[in-house]
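Q: Give me the 3D complex with PMV.
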Amino acid sequence: METCTAIAIASPNIALIKYWGNADDRLRLPASPSISFNLAGLQTRTRVDWEDRLAADEVIINGEEVTGATRDRVVHHLNHIRRLSGHQGFARVDSSNNFPTGAGIASSASAFAALSLAATTALGLHLSERELSALARLGSGSAARSIPGGFVAWYTGATHEDSYAESFAPPDHWDLVDLIAVVSRAHKTTGSTAGHAIAATSPLQSARLATAQERFERCRAAILARDFAALAPVVELDSNVMHSVMMTGNPSLMYWEPATLAVMQQVRRWRDSEGLDVCFTIDAGPNVHCICTAASASVIEPRLRHLPGVLQIYRAVPGGPARLETA
Ligand code: PMV
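A: Here is the predicted complex, encoded as structure tokens.
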């Protein structure tokens, strides 16, 4: 073999039931199950060339060669793929996002999903969706959820093979919209890998985990029934419970800015006083994902744009699975 190439495209995802804390940090086996959908239109495109002439892996992200911890994390993932395939050579990984890194949309999920699909395909390893999801999980837990399309559930699993995500409804099952209110473009101080390790230090994590399965089931049932009145409270509760764990761990993580809370309160007012179908969920950062039905989104989007502290809005709908780009 001289050069083997493949290009894959994957989207980031938004969790409606969150992953925060691992049962096994090394394998990234989550302590609780989660639910998400991929954000169509936002994407990472990754080209992998396994080349005999390379003396080491080369990693290019958004047009620039990277070194240090970012490169190491990619090399570590390529090591899993080398072990899986028996291939000894090195790869050039060239990855770019069509959404700005500073937008507060986690790119590690789409990055490790696209990398897993491109790197294994280039080596002729035709993994099943389940195997790819488990592999992507080793790079970034939530990347497991960016492999399947539509509405996705990621099971905890007790072993590497058992911890994977799968679709339980197609993207067009429900016309939900994620309006992402960007209130800060600053890079987060504590990333999620460190955050997962801190989760167990919170006295609230055991309560969160004891009630996680029930929220997971309520959320899945609300999605299957397209019941927004049932979805909204469980999505907000799950996000608030995760942020309570973040705030009460050691060290304490506080991701919200004043504008985060202002958007959260406005979302509640729109729902409670005007009956609009909207609820919030927030990841490990200050930006607010406003989940709406399509009808409510057209009313809410212009209003969100004018809220003080909101810098920008991204709009995304449920997307399809990670896929290969054909040359
Ligand atoms: O996949 P990670 O390690 O970046 O963790 C993602 C954590 C959250 O975004 C906060 C929640 C989630 O389930 O996506």
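A quick observation: The CA atoms of residues 28 and 141 lie 6 Å apart.
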